[in-house]
Amino acid sequence: MSIERVPRLNRHRNTGPRLPMLRAAIALAILAAFSLSSCAAKNDDTATATASFTAMDTAMTVTVHAHDRNEADEALSSCTEIVRGLDEALSPTEDGSWIARLNDADEPLPAPDDVEKLIEEALGMAEATGGAFDPTIYPLTSAWGFTSGNYRTPSDAEIETALTRVGFRSVDVDAASGAVTLDNEAQLDLGGIAKGYAADRITAELRDRNATGALVDLGGNVTVLGSKPDETPWTVGIADPHNPEALAGTLQLSEATVSTSGDYQRYFVDSEGIRRHHLIDPETGYPAESGLSSVSVVATSGAQADALSTALFVLGVDRAVDLWRATQNDEALAFEAVFIACDGSVLVTEGLSTSFAPSAAYDGRVETVPR
Amino acid sequence: MSAPQRLTAQRAEIVFAGIVFAVAVLLAACFAVGGSATAGTHGERTKAIVSRDGAVVQTIDLGNTDEFDILLFEDDRGSNLIELDGGRIRVADADCPDRTCVRTGWIERPGQIIACVPHGLTIIIEREGEGTPNGPDAVVGAA
């Protein structure tokens, strides 16, 4: 007994070297536990579901990260449902769609709930941009053939006639009944805002479902939500308008939506050799000539970013920057933008100056617009 | 007097052994998880996913850069002839009215997409996680 006891007591007294060992072991255990939990967060606790499909005349890809496979799959299918529902209601060329019936109707037509909201947002953006974004531009885009793909340059008389039918104040939404009335032979086309609105509906759905992150690409309108599984910010590239295969630069973003309008996206060269693009100025009836090749808008609302990218392109840099400054303190309307001019110069509003990184082709050509 | 001291000594040893064991298990588990993730990122080959109306109809391995193949996808809306060549893919021909899918040309980078809206057909190069080490997660304004 005593023989056994002595070495133990000796060892026990000899605490000097053992306590640091214990501390080291505990520290190591804590470290290991932390690294395990972060490994688990990256790999075990998230599942990813992705779908690619066509809707609203374009290709869409939605990627959802959630806590498990079921959550990810269910969230994804409810996102595609939302897009399909809006697409069915809003296709102006589809016979029998709600919007086609409205454009043919002689009397007020009640709108489905989310379409009514969308129309109200569209009218709000038309008001905020002084009509540079106008959801009643359909007679003009149609005269130029951009709605059918049969591109043509209309006569001045045709443009004059179409212009009389364009004006967002001809749209009336009865707040009580949700009925929509079109005056002055106006026609409604929500194509310039519907993808952004769909992104907002998707974002709300994914937040409700506690998705950990999502990348929603609705035909080049990109919305990022939450974080990537590796917890780095999302990187969204901006296509180079002078070489759309390449990038003009990238933006590091989280919880934001980006929308781009450019003169290279849809255009034709007419019989006089003039290049005609699809961003029609609602004031003149002709493709906007603002010296810009593309405008990318970053905002928290997809509908706003979508409508604003068109509006800012039509307005041109000076009036667009005025609008940016005027809305700085308006939380509901604030946005940031990247302007790429026809001469290859790039203007970035101050809020994006640190998140925008130009590609090699644009290095040294970027200026920041101060507040 | 001596009994409690002995007990204390034994407890310290047991605690120490327990901690060492726990550390070993945690480290092993973490390496296992981290190791499999690493293998997933670097071992996985690029794939092209062909979908019709949002449902995957075929997954094509683009990792074999020597491979050449022609695939025909058709339904009652029409047909798309898909060409596979050295790790890239394109719609070589289609009978859709706008032929936007054909004009898109070759795609090969993760996240790139070809869409034939009239036929409800999409081809996307699968993202490994999100984006690639040097590429963006998505692109705005691509024509």
UniProtKB/TrEMBL annotation, chain B:
Membrane keyword on record: yes
Top-level taxon in the UniProt lineage: Bacteria
Annotated keywords: Membrane, Transmembrane, Transmembrane helix
Gene3D superfamilies: N-utilization substance G protein NusG, insert domain
Ranges that cross the membrane: 12-34
UniProt-listed InterPro entries: NusG_2_sf
Protein name in the entry: Uncharacterized protein
Species of the source: Enteroscipio rubneri
